[in-house]
Design goal:
Elements (H helix, E strand, L loop, with lengths): L2 H16 L2 E7 L5 E3 L13 E7 L1 E10 L12 E8 L5 E7 L12 E8 L3 E6 L1
Antiparallel strand pairs: 1-2, 1-3, 4-5, 4-7, 5-6, 7-8
Bound molecules: zinc ion (ZN).
The site of zinc ion has 8 residues, from loops.
């Protein structure tokens, strides 16, 4: 795969995130769903995919709270790095949720939604 094609995919992923969607790949061979960053299908090693967009809404599986904001988020006091599973497909995605200080603010199973993409830090989330 050329660098250029890969860059194109990243841009598509980012523009999907800005529409609150997750761009995923579906293996043409075994129909497994994975993130667009995967090069070979983890199940069958296939390398032919369809691109599919799913709603970027899901339930929190796990998270870690960070009290030192990452570079570029100086207005954020603390944030959670969240792993969540999409509602539409069993795909695990991770992202950045500003404004979370204590675990009690984000019970496991809370609903989160993708609201954008930060070039340095990845998916931006908010709590529904
Ligand atoms: Zn496959």
């Amino acid at each position: 795969m050329s660098e250029f094609l890969h860059l194109g995919l990243r841009e598509k992923f980012i523009s999907a995130a800005r529409k609150s969607n997750i761009l995923a790949r579906e293996c043409k061979n075994c129909k497994s769903i994975m993130l667009e960053t995967t090069i070979y299908c983890p199940k069958c090693q296939g390398d032919k995919f369809n691109l599919v967009e799913y709603m970027g809404i899901g339930k929190v599986n796990t998270f870690t709270i960070h009290t030192v904001p990452p570079e570029g988020f100086d207005d954020v006091e603390s944030y959670a790095w969240v792993v969540f599973t999409l509602d539409e497909v069993p795909l695990r995605v991770s992202g950045f949720l500003p404004g979370i200080k204590f675990p009690s603010e984000l019970p496991i199973g809370s609903k989160v939604q993708v609201i954008g993409f930060d070039e340095r830090h990845g998916l931006l989330l908010h709590k529904l």
